[in-house]
User: Fold this.
Amino acid sequence: MRFGVVTFPGSNCDYDAYAGLRWVLGAPVEFLWHADSDLKDVECVILPGGFSFGDYLRAGAIARFSPVMKSVIKFAESGGLVWGICNGFQILLEAGLLPGAMLRNDTQRFACQWVRLRVETTRTPFTRGCRPGQILRVPIAHAEGNYYADEETLMELESSGRIVFRYVNARGVPDEASNPNGSRRSIAGIISREGNVLGMMPHPERAVEAILGSEDGLVLFNSLLGTTATGIDPVIRRRMVTDREV
Amino acid sequence: MVKGTVKVRLKDGVLDPQGVTIQRALQQMGYDWVRGVRTGRTFEIEMEAGSDDALRQRLKEISDRLLANPVIETYQVEVGQ
Assistant:
């Protein structure tokens, strides 16, 4: 599977996603530029974390009108895989590709910490390699991750199995103390009705190597790639970096 | 040139963490008569002249598309002054 990582002005996790895909997983990956509408025939578009357009107005509100997003919306509507991480999730909400909106964290703080995520469904291309109920340890870093939707929308998400990740405690149970931002129903990630557009606040791309503190994010990439690789041997990776970059 | 104003605020019932924090600060400062704070945002927009109705319509269009997020926010538009 060929990946494309979009760079907006203010993206700052685009290289994390790129590096994880290319050097840890050895997957083909390209950067896509916000001002271009060309998606370079990739099969999965990643909208990375960061602060696109300075988070002015509302997080994701300006990025959503970028030329690249016109193509991404068309791509998503025709069934293409789109994965919004953190700011990328906010952009997907603003674009209307996923329901709901983000409010400021109820703590009024920027939340930068490790969280536990419970995988709520394995019936998505992004989680099909997970065990049902698997707990992933991944980081979050956001000020506006307080997921909000009206009751009707929440019920619909719940009943159609579209809540993909929840924040949970050490026993794997969602509760107030383990909810870092006040999200409705401890929601950390949701998927589109058609199952091809995933939005999540946590950063799996920052948890793909032991040296980063966790490899739990790998399972999501592996789900897309249809592999169970636990990463490329560091020696091979170093050689790849040397070969391609120098 | 005509001035248009758009006031955007969170819908009733949507938590406003900024408002809550400001309320707490005011109470800590001794203003214990403060019973609640809700925050919002005002946009002042310079517009090409036109009929009031047309200007109002333009302001509504940009509010719906960009200035406000209808999932969590409401807005009011004013023309003139």
In short: The interface with chain B takes residues 57-58, 61, 65, 93-94, 99-101, 103-108, 146, 148-150, 182 of chain A (CB under 8 Å). The two ends of chain A are 25 Å apart (CA to CA). The mean pLDDT of chain A is 93. Helices of chain A lie at 14-24, 67-77, 87-94, 151-159, 218-225, 234-245.
